[in-house]
Amino acid sequence: MAAxxxxxxxxxxxxxxxxTIQRKSLPAEVTMSRDALMxxxxxxxxxxxxxxxxxxxxxxxxxxxxxQDYTPISWPDGIVKQWYxxxxxLYDDIYMNLTFVNVFDRLxxxxxxxxxxxxxxxxxxxxxxxxxxARYNILQGLMPPASGHWLNNPHADDxxxxxxxxxxxxxxxxxPNTSSExxxxxxxxxxxxxxxxxxxxxxAMYTLAFVSDDMEFIVSEALKTIPQESRYYQCMKDxxxxxxxxxxxxxxxxxxxxxxxxxxxxxxxxxxxxxNIDAVINSAYILIGLLYGEGDFYxxxxxxxxxxQDSDCNAASAAGILGTMIGYNKIPEYWMKNLREVEDMDFAxxxxxLNKAYQMSFDQALLVVERxxxxxxxxxVTIFCQQPVPVRYEKSFEGMxxxxxxxxxxxxxxxxxxxFEGTGIVxxxxxxxxxxxxxxxxxxxxxxxxxxTANLPALFTTRRHELFWKYMLPKGKHRVTFQWLNPxxxxxxxxxxxxxxxxxxxxxHHHD
Length: 512
Hints:
Blueprint: E1 7-14, E2 20-25, E3 29-33, H1 34-55, H2 79-86, H3 92-107, H4 113-121, H5 129-139, H6 160-163, H7 166-170, H8 176-187, H9 194-209, H10 215-222, H11 231-245, H12 250-261, H13 279-292, H14 297-306, H15 311-326, H16 333-340, H17 354-371, E4 375-376, E5 380-384, E6 401-411, E7 418-422, E8 424-433, E9 439-446, E10 449-457, E11 468-470, E12 476-484, E13 491-502
Antiparallel strand pairs: 1-2, 3-5, 4-5, 6-13, 7-12, 8-11, 8-13, 9-10, 9-12
Helix pairs in contact: 1-14, 1-15, 1-17, 3-4, 3-17, 4-5, 8-9, 9-10, 9-15, 11-12, 11-13, 12-13, 13-14, 13-15, 14-15
């Protein structure tokens, strides 16, 4: 067991049921055995993998609705191996993490951001949302942090970095500010603003799970890494407050969340739709799982899953944080039995198994501990704990409000002038070609001026997630035309629909 003590700073308040809450503070330093540190790192990776598998069949099947209790989620023998073998893409949030773990392993703690960016952009796996938009940007020469900035990435607030930030917490035990520095570098490859905060917060919760066994303390203390004026912070604080108000009713907190926080204004797939891959609401679901799970592995994972939307990723983050807190050896055998069958199998698109990942994160954690003033000897590790401080304030889509979605459904060479009134527009669509290496070259003109000449690859792995977008236009009527410079036989560029933005939210009309 870890030989650490938490300092009680006194009894500072009551919750709504009248019981006293113990407020704790981080100790200045924590000493634990090397074995205890390894047990926690293994618990993080194992918890994440188990929960990703458990919730896999539910991912984006329940959007804007919870998964009701009567809906069974099964855990048959051999299920992890089955997913590994037949549907390895389920583990995208794990092999994405391992891409970054592997760069640190090869190049050391000071590996430059471009090395992480290129490793991820040139990998063989398929990507979506902020990750794919960033991959496209990087392959076109737009490097981080520009690759994740909302002006260049309509998915900047999406969940992507949140699901792949676990490594940053696992390599920085007890050191949330150090994990924030890692998150700053790597998280801005694909995200910005609230999308970046999702990863900063998840990583910070991991770091504190090494040095506290009080989940309410962990989630509240880790939130100090997020600027209070951000939408992200305000939503997480609401969840913590609602948990105090409704300590026995996670569904009530879920409903309050939907009512107040379920609007998605960035992701073109989530605007005016039940689908929500925004980091804010999905982080809230992680938090609901952690708080209402009460330290129970199954309950934590199950509640985070039943909140819906990106349910496998949210359950995976929650169970990874709890797995770090309780350690590998405390995860019940019922869940571990299926995991043990795959611990030596490499994840898809990697040469890294769970057993290798445990060791790589452990080795990296020892280096980070020493670099930050801690001590490592043959038996024990002494960590200098960090009091969390907020990262800088960022806001995506500042002053941009979606006001309309227009169906176009035309090939780009047959699209007439598209007119709209507002301050921004995003065009969804795709490129289809017999020659998979085909790259379309298309000019976009707004109000008669050339705004962009874009490369549009037909290949899925290198595609541009949205064909075109332009934010921050002067408010007013605008005309958009396209010029396709290199059409080929059996090649199609399809304009599906456009999302239109303005500088104020749409007014609700009241009809008598």
